[in-house]
User: What shape does this take?
Amino acid sequence: MEENEASNLSVKRPCPDHGEDQCEQDHHKKTKLSEPSASNPSTFCKHTESIESGLQAVSSSPDENNGKSIVEEADAVLQEDEEGNGDSFADMMKHGLVEQDVGITKFVSIHEGFSGILKERYSDFVVHEINKEGKVVVLDDLSVPNDDDEEPSEDIFSVLSSQDKERLEDLQLFKNKEDSVMIEVVDDTKEKRTVIHQAVKSLFPGLETKTEEREGKKFIIAYHVAGRTALANPRKHSWPKNRGSYCHFVLYKENKDTMDAINVLSKFLRVKPNIFSYMGTKDKRAITVQEIAVVKITAQRLSHLNKCLMNFKLGNFSYKKYPLKLGELQGNHFKVVLRNITGSNQQIEHAMTSLRDIGFINYYGMQRFGTTAVPTYHVGKAILQNNWSEVIDLILKPRPGAERGYLVKCREEWAKTKDPEAALRKLPVKRCVEGQLLRGLAKYGMKNFVSAFGMIPRNNRLMYIHSYQSYVWNNIVSKRINEYGLKAMAGDLVLKGGTAVPIQGSDEEKYTIHDVVLPLPGFDVIYPEHKIGNAYEEMMAADGLNINNMRHKIRDYSLSGAYRKIIIHPQNVTWEILGYDDKKISLVQTDVEKLEGVPLPKISKDGHFKALKMAFSLPPSTYATMAIREVLKMDTSIKNQTQLNTIWLR
Assistant: This one.
């Protein structure tokens, strides 16, 4: 659960549009985008965006009312990146948050801290999901199950003309008034007709075909199997009855967040994103491996994407009778490289031993709160206060700090005119939070802020109030550690069978700090029975909120609350101290490199620079950056990390 950043949609030429053989040619022609590193702070800017801005506020479903495609919008963003905004990223991040701003102030270990650079390269951060059986998910097999559909011929992707594909896509998406499309068979052979039938069914789920003779000529007639539901559930009748309805696969991705990856896969498969399911979202600026399930798409079709997409690999295919559900995972296994470490070997040993034996404070990480001058928890507080004019103002007003140029222009237009349509015209990317809100204001008017705000996807709206909960929790856990240290105390809360109960004085010795939980504020939780309970009430009262009335007028924004352990004890902790001379060298071997037999570069212990390579497993909803913070004893905010990068380069 790490920071999400704007996606760079680097893809090869789509197989469905240009043929598989063309896709292969393009594979050799195109070079992979160079990995962003600290060697260019302006490049680093492109890969570290606010949680509110850019492309990461994309809805989970395509926007059918918007004329621009995701790729077109991404091109507009990348073009602006190339032009540059003048300010260095380090200068822009002067207005960003630091840990103290969000209540992250305490440590549990007593070792001396040292500095190091986190995520200098995205390949320095590798995440493997731990599935519900407790097994670490790896990509180690690209083959297709033996019972899968027969391999389509090489001609299948080039047999249809561009005009045929355009007409078929319009038919598939119900964009024209016709109920069928006719394709004339010029070379009338059974083999030729079979290839056309296969091409239509493979590339356009939901369409069926038949052969008819009209006026002495043979035509392939494409038509819908069923109504609009056929698009989401392609060719039900052709799916083998003894095969599970869900194709499960392992998704390996580089420098993409999970939702961006799903959107790309659905675009190339010509299906809706909601037919995919997964157990958790993964980092953007990282290499991540996780399990995905999709409804009635064959492993064969999925495997073709390996020839078409960059920074993705799909494998370990299997068919099952069930989808995946959010939260089913047992956690994540991390492999992290911290570069340019300044600590002595003894300091590093003390730090890692403490992480292994004691753990770290279970703070919500910096990515929970955004990176711009307007933190997400400020918006969340305004929502809970029912102060909707403040909500709109916080999201749209001009702000200093790390922002793309088009967002700056949009905010300036809004401040000057308060005209949502005029501000919207400044945005090449309409799917960002700002774009969705402006469209809502244009649709519902300036007196219906609640409905306008509702145009933002639900998950993004809830992100704001959850950010405020996290802000409160961070501040309270710091007070708890400061007041009582690392011992379970009478009045602390522990969980018994999922129910929180206060520790009685006579039971203090039965519990350790690893058993203690603190509540996220809500209407369905209890609070500690010592002075920390009062601290919740005082903090929220200062924000104009009543802790005893967390039900909102709008049901979506009512907070029930939850419980969270205050100390996390990582599992499977290992570490290694490395030396290196080339800062571009990879220090972690990926699953794809293992599949391709690419060995790790030879690394000298006597290199000019020192790196700490660590691995550990964490439960869901905990932040690896907070474990790393405990090791380094330094601020992990983007603001501080950027300053470290800049100082090192100078």
User: Anything to note?
Assistant: The CA atoms of residues 90 and 446 lie 37 Å apart.
